[in-house]
Amino acid sequence: MPSEIETPQFRSDVRAELIRGQAQDSDVIWAARVSTSGEKSLDALDADAARSEGLIRYLMRDRHGTPFEHNSMTFYVQAPIFVFREFQRHRIGWSYNEESGRYRELAPVFYVPDESRPLVQVGKTGHYIFEPGTVEQHEVVARATRRAVSAAYEAYREMLDVGIAREVARGVLPVATYSSMYATCNARSLMSFLSLRVQSADARFPSSPQREIQLVAEQMEAQFARLMPITHKAFIDAGRVAP
C-alpha cells in the first residue's frame, strides 16, 4: 500500500556550521619559519602570532601561500543542490562528502527565494546587475516554485512506493532540493573560495557570486575570522586576494 506523502517544506535560508577547527594564526608562523630556521622552527610552535603579524602580512602581500595550508576547518553545510554544484567547482584544497540520494530517501525540503532575493538580471552575460523585482514577480516565483517542487516530490514518492530504486527515483527531484555535506579546507583554499564567492567593496578583483552561495560563504568567513583574525585581516588588507 502506498505510504502517505510527506508535506513539502519550504525554506529560504542556508547553513554553514564550523564543526571542527584546527586553525590559528600561529600555524602560519611556524610553517613559514622552517624555510629559514630548519629544525629551530619547532621553537616557534607556540609563537605569539600578534608579535609576528608583520610576517603574516608579508606572506599574504607577496603571495607566499603554502604556510597558510597547515591548518584545517570542517564545515557542515545545508543548502539547495544548485549551491553545492557551484561549491564543487572549488577542488584544490577541498574535500567534500555529501548526503546521497542513492542510499537514503531524500526529505521534501525545497528552496524558495524570499523577498530579499533580487530577481531580475539586467545587462549582458559577464556584465550585468540584479534588480529586486516587483511584488508580483516575487509572488510568481514563490507560487511556481512551490507547485513545481511539490509535483516533483509526488512523482518521486510514487516511484518509491512501487519499489523503484532511490537512485532512479531521485532523477525527478529539482536542484532546489536541500542537501547537506561536510566540506573541509585549509585557510589558503578558503581564501580562494571567499575571493570569488563574496562580493565586497574591499576586493581588488570584484566578483559577482550568486546570492545563495554568498550567504554560505559569509557564514564561513565569519568563522575563519574568529579562528585566524590576523590572517583574515591581512587577507582583507591585501584586497581579498588569496596568497
Describe this entry's structure for a reader.
The chain has a single domain (9-23, 71-237), classed as Gyrase A, domain 2 (2-Layer Sandwich). It has 243 residues and is α+β, with helices and mostly antiparallel strands. Strands 2-3-8-4 form a 4-stranded antiparallel β-sheet. A two-stranded parallel sheet has the order 1-5. The protein contains 8 helices and 8 strands; from the N terminus they run ββααβαββββααβααα. Helix 2 crosses helix 8 and helix 7 packs across helix 8. The termini are far apart.
Note the total helix count: 8
Strand content: 15-25%
The CATH topology is Gyrase A, domain 2
> How confident overall, as mean pLDDT?
92
Total beta strands: 8
Give the neighbour order of strands across the main sheet.
2-3-8-4
Radius of gyration: 22 Å
- Order of helix and strand elements from N to C terminus: EEHHEHEEEEHHEHHH
Rough outline: globular
Sequence stretches where pLDDT stays below 50 over 5 or more residues: none
Largest sheet: 4 strands, antiparallel
Question: Number of folding domains?
Answer: 1
Task: Summarize the helices and strands and which ones pair or pack.
Layout: E1 9-11, E2 15-22, H1 25-37, H2 53-61, E3 72-80, H3 81-87, E4 94-98, E5 109-111, E6 120-124, E7 127-131, H4 135-161, H5 166-169, E8 178-185, H6 187-197, H7 211-227, H8 229-237
Parallel strand pairs: 1-5
Antiparallel strand pairs: 2-3, 3-8, 4-8, 6-7
Helix pairs in contact: 2-8, 6-7, 7-8
